[in-house]
Amino acid sequence: MLELEGVSKSFAAVEAVKNVHLHVRQGEAVGLLGPNGAGKSTLIDMLTTLTKPTAGEIRFEGKPVANQLKPFRNRIGVVPQEIALFQELSAEENLLFFGKLYKLEKAALKQRVAELLDLMELTNRKKEPVRTFSGGMKRRLNLAVALIHKPEYLILDEPTVGIDPHSRRHLLDFIKDLQEHKGLTILYTSHYMEEVEFLCNRIYIVDRGSVIAEGTQSEIKRIISPQSTYELTVAVKTAELKEQLASHEHVQALKETDEGYRIVSAKNNLFPTLLHMVEDSGTTVKGIHIKQPTLEDVFLHLTGRSLRD
């Protein structure tokens, strides 16, 4: 098990991470969900031993990571947010280079490189320089590098940044298969709630350096009931209506959408109130729907802000 116990990290006067308690059991897929600037990458830097905590302790299998750096690093694979590849080398050469850093035996490394190129569907491009690859191909190769030494834990920091939707889904399917069928333990950070919902069994929601919620998807979603999230669509959005909704005593959180507003409310039947407020503002209702809560709704409920804000 990988654990953070009361971990904090400060940079001069800025406390980027504040007293975080987090654990990842072997075989789990755990998500770190939060907006940009929430402290997720700083947590990953500490977990992967790139930087030391200002306070608290990181433990692996019950022992401080600081006392077992080399064996710990050999058992984790890291997919950084930025592409960490040599652009002038081929896909095959990149994998061989990183495999040699782990001192893999020549024959075993050659076989492992072939396996990963096949897994990532890059075999037919293995001799070509990485600079000629698409964004999605680079992301898949970035993942392959993290897997070259057959790690037990895979730590991924926003690995789908900058790629098209098709490539993004392709990469997510690869990661899910690694956890479900190959037994890897996954720690995955993202500000895309749909990625975390797709991949992760258990989730930590992070905001401004602190964990504000933790649990399984169903446990976290129970923070707000299914009856408390409304999708209101209107003919015309007005500043007056938005202000009335935001200030209403039964509206806990409000997010503007393309055609109206998403409203989190503790009141079970807000339909009459919403109808009257829309009519009073001079526009008309196109639809009001009760929806099942998402992780985005929970974040909105807890912070009053969107994950993308």
Structure description:
The chain is of the alpha/beta class. The chain folds into 2 domains: 1-220, P-loop containing nucleotide triphosphate hydrolases (Rossmann fold), CATH 3.40.50.300; 226-291, Alpha-Beta Plaits (2-Layer Sandwich), CATH 3.30.70.100. The chain has 11 helices and 14 strands. The chain has helices at residues 40-47, 69-74, 91-101, 106-119, 135-147, 165-182, 193-199, 217-221, 239-247, 271-280, 295-303; strands spanning 2-11, 14-24, 29-33, 55-60, 63-64, 76-79, 153-157, 185-190, 202-207, 210-216, 229-234, 251-256, 260-265, 285-290. The strands form 3 sheets. It has a 6-stranded mixed sheet, with helices on both faces. The chain has a 4-stranded antiparallel sheet with strand order 2-1-4-5, with helices on one face. A hairpin with a 2-residue loop joins β1 (2-11) and β2 (14-24). α3 (91-101) packs across α4. The longest helix has 18 residues, at 165-182. It is elongated. The model has no long low-confidence stretch (mean pLDDT 90). GO terms for molecular function: ATP binding; ATP hydrolysis activity. It comes from Shouchella clausii. Keywords: ATP-binding, Nucleotide-binding, Transport.
